[in-house]
Design a protein that fits this description.
Blueprint (H helix, E strand, L loop, with lengths): L6 H21 L5 H10 L4 H11 L2 H13 L12 H37 L4 E6 L2 E7 H26 L1 E2 L13 H11 L2 E2 L10 H28 L6 E2 L19 H22 L10 H30 L1 E2 L1 H8 L8 H10 L4 H18 L3 H6 L2 H7 L1 H6 L3 H4 L3 H7 L4
Helix pairs in contact: 1-2, 1-5, 1-7, 3-4, 5-6, 5-10, 6-8, 8-9, 8-10, 9-10, 12-13
């Protein structure tokens, strides 16, 4: 990913844009065909030389063109004919963002594959589901991972759309009117770069495209932070149902030798904030003066490469965390039973209502028994069996059946099929 944003790659794309534009002009008879051929064969650049020239001229595209002209010679007068700097800058940026997006799609697909594998591995591994951080009803760890898999698939779809939106170029002149160019030049250049031609532009491509791409990266970061935060909770000492892999020789704390901290998930959670901040900056870039100003330019030189590189990095981190995540099914089951059966309170409530008891009465009876368990301990099932109102309506056998974990996860196969995990 880093190589996409190196100066060498950027200038290589700039050079190809200029050469393609010359070839398109030659096809139209605007410049001699042999001049276009000479430009193709001679054109070259050196990053260091461009930097030396830019130090004097204070303009990156002019410095680049000057350096290319040093290689091409007399025919260089045909380079950049009728074009403005943004024709090169924005079209090249679109290529780089497209290259980055395609690489990030591979990263997302890799994460999805690992999530799918581990979801299937823990498909029937029962654990307690929590709402507000409090025990609710049974789920499986595989279902939690299947949920993340489905979210990752949505991120893939979002990024595919964002890449399609950003993969456009422009060679339309100073204010987008093609005053000194034929629109066919733009079409030729973009087609050879794997881009679509922008239907309409000003001096620049419109920044809503870039903002959509950056917000998509921020959303990917949000998902990764969500996964990381859940793992961090599951790794807490009081829970310890799963934890990051802790390698031999790894140290968790400079002061406390016993520590095994979720440092990678914490890093992912922290860096996702940078992605959101960069997305905000990209949205600020949408509103420019008239046909163009350069308030967006300095911002983009930082936030777009950084977000692409950062997203690639945190995707790799999360893929590794999930791949090597240490899972403790026995602890999950032990934690599930810590509330002594309270997680089946809704099953009892519904059974009483289905047998004809008023819901308000059923809720009062079940809640009273549950509060006694919270306060005094003991088994929820035993307290229900001890209540004549409940025992007379349901019977001991029915009450026993309501505490069956199997019924809680009977639809897991269906849910896996719905997200494409079969």
């Amino acid at each position: 990913m880093g190589a996409i944003w190196e100066e060498e790659n950027k200038y290589r794309i700039w050079l190809e844009i200029e050469i393609l534009a010359c070839e398109a002009q030659a096809r139209l008879g605007v410049i001699p065909a042999d001049a276009a051929a000479a430009i193709r064969s001679k054109a070259a650049f050196e990053v260091k030389r461009i930097e030396e020239i830019e130090e004097e001229v204070k303009h990156d595209v002019i410095a680049f063109l000057t350096n290319v002209g040093e290689h091409v010679g007399q025919e260089s007068r045909f380079i950049h004919l009728g074009m403005t700097s943004s024709d090169v800058l924005d079209t090249a940026l679109a290529v780089q963002m497209k290259q980055s997006g395609e690489l990030l799609l591979k990263g997302l697909e890799g994460l999805a594959a690992v999530l799918a594998r581990r979801a299937k591995e823990f498909k029937t591994t029962i654990m307690v589901g929590r709402t507000h951080g409090v025990h609710a009803e049974p789920i499986t760890f595989g279902l939690k991972l299947a949920l993340w898999y489905a979210e990752t698939q949505r991120n893939i779809a979002r990024l595919q759309a964002a890449v399609g939106r950003i993969a456009v170029g422009q060679i339309s002149g100073a204010v987008g009117t093609f005053e000194h160019l034929s629109p066919s030049v733009e079409e030729y250049v973009c087609a050879h770069l794997g881009l679509a031609a922008a239907p309409v532009s000003t001096q620049v491509l419109q920044r809503d495209r870039h903002a959509e791409f950056m917000n998509t990266l921020a959303l990917i970061g949000c998902s990764l932070e969500k996964f990381a935060t859940e793992i961090r909770h599951l790794q807490r000492t009081e829970v310890l149902e799963a934890e990051e892999y802790f390698s031999k020789g790894q140290k968790g704390s400079s002061a406390m030798p016993h520590k095994r901290n979720p440092i990678t998930c914490e890093r992912i959670a922290g860096l996702s904030r940078v992605l959101r901040g960069n997305a905000q900056a990209a949205m600020e870039n949408v509103a420019l003066w008239h046909e163009r100003d350069i308030t967006h330019s300095s911002v983009e030189r930082v936030v777009i490469p950084d977000s692409c590189i950062l997203t690639d990095y945190v995707l790799a981190l999360m893929t590794d965390v999930i791949d090597r995540l240490v899972v403790y099914p026995d602890t999950m089951l032990a934690n599930l039973h810590r509330t002594h059966g309270l997680i089946f309170s809704q099953s009892v409530l519904l059974a009483l209502a289905q047998k004809g008891m008023r819901r308000e009465d059923a809720y009062r009876i079940v809640q009273q028994a549950a509060m006694e368990v919270w306060r005094d301990g003991g088994e929820f099932k035993a307290r229900l069996l001890a209540q004549p109102e409940v025992r007379e309506v349901l019977g001991a056998e029915t009450i026993e059946s309501l505490f069956d974990l199997g019924k809680s996860i009977r639809n897991v196969d269906l849910l896996f099929a719905r997200v494409g995990l079969t």
